[in-house]
Design goal:
By secondary structure, the protein is of the alpha/beta class. The chain is built from 11 helices and 8 strands.
């Protein structure tokens, strides 16, 4: 590692043509500021990861790269989702820098928290998590469900940092070990704690999105939460087993009671109770099969070992190609 660490800011982008021209200068100014303070190398970069955007996001990234060499970008061959976009950027950066900081493009995460992150790295931490100090900008529903999600994840045995998303500093040393995690179903905020190494948290307040619309509606948030739970923990299977044992014991008790009542001659037609029992058991069985099916599906996807991302273009390769054509 150099005396002044090389930092790459990794920024996933999907249809960000409205916000990118606003936030890109902010990221560049932060690079300049940290370099002027002597905390990072002047060879630090801002890496944009275009996640198969359908608007002019990639065009904007290419233009930024032509104007300033500190702006660089990679483009995925198609949209593969936020987590895979972040992973692609981190894997691209790991052998070219000393530290990375992943952050979303929308300007909601406090960019000034990077100062404290770098300070913690210089003090010996290999991973620094950006953690929201409060959720004042969220609606009651979003705040309640989000905090409930983190509590549920920990209760199910997944080690996640409370109120941490994907704003974090990670050293290249950690990334080289993280590259050995080859699963297709990834949930980064729950995977990095598994790597270990010295870590800490930096707290900040999250602002409103600067421009454009959120790409994470409730449906996608719920899908991400369920994917995180099933990717990091098998405890739901244990819970299903417990429910099955409990229902079986209850059924045994009811069966004994029914036999006793029949012997005593106290039996009578019970259509309502029978329907309720059948519906209850049927619902439990279907839910259980659905959860088990999710795990089987994930196993199926893992067995295929398909690539998690494919990079189709890099700005520096495009610039070299244009230079050769012009020459």
């Amino acid at each position: 590692m150099s005396a002044r660490p090389i930092l790459w800011i990794v920024i996933p982008c999907y249809n960000e043509e409205q916000v990118l021209p606003i936030t890109a200068p902010m990221f560049l100014n932060k690079i300049k500021e940290l370099a002027d303070q002597g905390k990072i190398s002047k060879n630090s970069r801002v890496l944009f990861v275009n996640d198969g955007s359908k608007d002019k996001t990639w065009e904007i990234i290419c233009n930024l790269a032509k104007k300033d060499e500190r702006f660089i970008g990679i483009c995925q061959s198609r949209n593969r989702g936020h987590q895979n976009a972040v992973l692609a950027g981190l894997m691209e950066a790991k052998d070219k820098c000393d530290i990375t900081i992943s952050i979303d493009c929308d300007g909601q995460d406090d960019i000034n928290a990077m100062d404290k992150m770098v300070d913690e790295y210089l003090a010996g931490c290999e991973v620094v998590y950006g953690v929201r100090s409060k959720r004042a900008t969220d609606t009651w529903f979003k705040r309640t469900t989000a905090e409930g999600f983190y509590k549920l994840m920990n209760a199910l045995g997944a080690e996640v940092v409370f109120n941490h998303a994907d704003y974090r500093l990670v050293s290249s040393r950690v990334l080289n070990h993280f590259a050995e995690y080859e699963e297709v179903n990834i949930f980064l905020r729950g995977m990095f704690p598994l790597v270990g190494f010295k870590s800490t948290s930096v707290y900040y307040e999250r602002a409103e999105r600067i421009a454009g619309e959120s790409h994470y509606p409730l449906k996608k948030m719920l899908a991400l939460a369920f994917n995180g739970i099933t990717s990091l923990s098998v405890k739901p299977i244990a819970i299903i087993t417990g429910i099955g044992v409990g229902v079986s014991l209850l059924g045994l008790i009811v069966a004994i009671w029914a036999i006793v009542e029949a012997v005593l001659g106290n039996t009578m037609a019970g259509w309502t109770s029978m329907v309720c029992i059948v519906c209850l058991l049927g619902g439990v069985q279907l839910v259980s099969l659905g959860v088990i099916g999710q795990y089987i599906g994930k196993t199926y996807l893992e067995a295929k070992r398909r690539p998690r991302y494919i990079i189709s273009e890099r700005t520096w390769e495009s610039n070299e190609r244009h230079w050769i054509e012009e020459k």
